[in-house]
Amino acid sequence: MAIKSGSQYLESLRDGRDVWMHGKRVEDVTREPGLARGAGTLADFIDRQQEAGLLDRMTFVENGERYPMSFLLPRSAEDVRRRGAACYEWARWSNGMLGRTPDYKNASVTAFAGAAEFLNENGGAVDFAANMRAYYEEARGRDYVLTHTLVNPQFNAELARQGRSSPEVALKAVKETDAGIVVNGARLLATLGPLANEIEVFPSTLLKASEENVPFAFAFTLPIDTPGLRMICRDTYDSGKSTFDAPLASRFEEMDAVVVFDNVLIPWERVFMYGDPLLCNRAFAETNAVVHMMHQVACGKLAKAEFVVGLLCAMARASGKDRDMNVKGQIAQAMWIAETVRALLFSAEQQPEQDKWGLYIPQRRPLDTSRNLFPRLYPKLIETVHMIGSSSLVATPCESDFGNDIAGDVERYFQQVNLDSRDRVALFRLAHDVAVSGFGNRQVLYERFFFGPQNVMASIYYDLYDKDEMMDRVGELLAST
After folding, report:
1. Taking a C-beta distance cutoff of 8 angstroms, is the pair 259, 229 a contact?
2. DSSP 3-state assignment of 59?
3. 182 three-state secondary structure
4. What is the per-residue pLDDT across 126-151, written as a single tens digit (0 to 9) for each?
5. Which of 290, 351, 368, 479 has the smallest number of CB atoms closer than 10 Å to its CB?
6. pLDDT tens column, 220-266
7. Structure pTM?
């Protein structure tokens, strides 16, 4: 089938999946208030990548079939940049506000397929590498929309600090059969889960290489409608408001869900790692899946930072604050954030390296720097929206107020020097959705913890950083005195 159409994507979600939201089971996620418009947005994006002016940027042809660019195995430096251009285009369509677009997990599956021999490192009866390659062909051939879940629920924080899982709640293998493994427990948090075709369940947080952690060490994929798989959603941020009143939440609700596995059978052909905690811990780094995922993320963060800069400039111009030196200085700091992300992405894409699997990857250090900086910088961007917007962020009548008995008041009292009242209200309702609403605050939380706790990420960055040459220079100077 290769690339789906938007309508085919929506039809693929009508499969009887077990999704719960607002205290009841959802009969059809494509029609459920609070989910349907997010599904519709993604369907529109899927169609958009096939438009004449975008087709060659967003897709590639292999053996006569056309596939999404995120499934391209990068065999040259130019392939790295082609993938980056497609990821950035995907991100621009939502201005980075739809975080879990399909290209994110496609990057992971593609990386694991390209480095599949890693999965057979310790031998065994199951050919995990063949399973991974076959799944890559299936996923790209059927153009799956994937979600994933990595984190076990926390029952005992002390166990987590020790690199151990809490057996009371953590997803674990409870049985082996000729057909596959049976798993039971829960995982969080599957972003886009109710609107995906399949879920990738890969290694959780670092596991201590001990016998007690063997049941928690696995990687597999499953269709969302698999019997025994249930998703429990948070409240939706799409409350049914118009796109004028809630310009982001009405379009880009991607939903997060806790995933419960009630003695679910995972067929052996869908298992890619099993029973080896150390191998699981090494998987993302040694296959370079983490680098390809960071590449997609950096493209998205650039689009998001640019959008916030544009919003800040529009807010300042509306009121004439763009002539104020202090306001210019605040917005300049936001510009620096966007340009820092841009420079790091450019550096990574212009210095690709061939890995031991024969694939090209962007240089890791700039991407790793970006993924450590952005969780700290995005809240600063939102703080700047607060400071520039001030009370205008809540002085926001709704769309219907322009057509009722108080329309004259709204037209008169909500205009600004450079915007009429309707355009001014629309602008600041957008700013409210970015920086004040539940949707906007979820974005801040999402960015803070996208790749994990910031102290953990910083510690990993320190350990991976090539420090020796710099320390040698210090030693040389001291030796010369």
Report:
1. yes
2. strand
3. strand
4. 999 999 999 999 999 999 999 999 88
5. 479
6. 999 999 999 999 999 999 999 999 999 999 999 999 999 999 999 99
7. 0.95
